[in-house]
Amino acid sequence: MSGRQRSKTVVKLEERKQAARPKAPAAPAVEPDPLYGVVLLKTALELKRRKDGSAEEILRGVLARMRIPEHEFRAFLEQRGDLLKALGMQGK
Question: Which long-range contacts (CB under 8 A, 24 or more apart) does 31-37 make?
Answer without folding.
Answer: 32/76, 33/68, 33/72, 33/76, 35/66, 35/68, 36/68, 36/73, 36/76
